[in-house]
Amino acid sequence: MERMLSGIKPTGRVTLGNYIGAIKPFISYQDEYEMFIFIANLHSMTITQEPKELRKNTRDLIAIYLAAGLDPEKVTLFLQSDVHEHAQLGWYMTCLSGMGELYRMTQYKDKAAKGESIGTGIYVYPTLMAADILLYNPQYVPVGEDQKQHVELTRDLADRFNRRYSETFVLPEPLVAKVGGRIMDLQNPTKKMSKSSSDGKGCIYILDDVNLSKKKIMSAVTDSEGSIRFDPENKPGISNLLEIYASLSGRTIPELEQRYVGAGYGTFKKDLAEIVGQYLTDIQTRYKEVTQGSYIDDILKEGARKATPVARKTLAKVERKIGITIYK
Ligand code: TYM
Predict the structure, then answer these.
(1) Does residue 183 have a known ligand-binding role?
(2) 80 domain-assigned
(3) Which residues does ATP bind (predicted)?
(4) Are 160 and 250 part of one and the same domain?
């Protein structure tokens, strides 16, 4: 079996964008690949976290993974902070990287452009992400569009290491869903739907009240043309809703365009609101079950137990090659 790895940060509440761009694809791959999925809680420290909230968000995120259908029998699910090798390889990756290439990362550039004071953690974030990936030598990294550049940097660092010290790392490939790789804000469809979005109206949260989520779909920004067709440039609102619909229903966008020829936006949105509502209802019902007792803790401990030897083996190999290990 080929190997796959991915992670999500426990910052803020999980959005429909995270679900469509990442969690849903993970579930669809779990039968075909050996999967490692982790909660990137070290990455969440790049912005100030209220400890109580971080704990809650971390637990919620794991519960959502499980409630959405990730099967811990098939997938190794763990906390990044439980496997200390991430931080250690992260340091070597930082030392392997150049200021210029980190400076070019759009996530950093966007934050820097806002002129706010930003922590060093945001700047070196991609090197820790490279370590997360390379410790497990996966062939594929399923991510949303916004993380593709980080996986490409990981490939560059892996290649640099291999050339400098000899073949060690598999060069991982980013896997971005063709439909749903970048779900946009419902009120501002030229902007990514995001956990940190300040206007809650444009963002659907997985644990949101179901009726409120339906209302958010019904009041999503569209255009005045009145026809349901996919044209992200001229019709970003409708195109985004079509992507959400296609991804959740398993239908293709052309099929949906065909189905809604002559129909108004109201009908289309109402159908989509029902689908979104059904997904949320199902996940929220399961969420209540998986948060009972010590289920989550048991899964995370077992996940760390399985992930640690894999990570340790890679780190030991790296440390031998670079000359850090001196013991015979
Ligand atoms: P994070 O936590 O921002 O997002 C988690 C995943 O959700 C995807 N995503 C979206 N997909 C579609 N539409 C959206 N609006 C949307 N918003 C978010 C992201 O692309 C991502 O796949 N750096 C990562 C976490 C990470 C990681 C890793 C991922 C740390 N180490 C190693 C893969 C491998 C992040 O901040 O994701």
Answers:
(1) yes
(2) yes
(3) 9-11, 17-18, 144-146, 183, 192-196
(4) no
For residue 142, the CA-to-ligand 1 centroid distance in Å is: 9
Return the ∠ at Cα 196 (arms to 195 and 200), rounded to 5°.
80
Query: DSSP letters of 138-203?
Result: -SEEE--GGGHHHHHHHHHHHHHHHHHH-S-----EEE--TTTSSPBPSSSTTSB--TT-S-GGG-
What type of residue sits at position 18? N
> Tokens 């956990």 identify what position?
195
How many domains, in total, are found in the chain? 2
**Dist CA 86 CA 93 (whole Å):** 10
Say what the pTM is.
0.94
pLDDT exceeds cutoff 90 at 200: no
248 and 172, same structural domain?
A: no
The mean per-residue pLDDT over the stretch 181-197 comes to 90
Q: In the chain, pLDDT over 70 holds for what percent of residues?
A: 99
Complete edge-to-edge strand list for the sheet that includes strand 34-39: 75-79, 34-39, 3-8, 140-142, 173-175
What secondary structure letter does DSSP report for 294?
T
Say if residue 32 is in the same domain as residue 107.
yes
Residue 57 among known ligand-binding residues: no
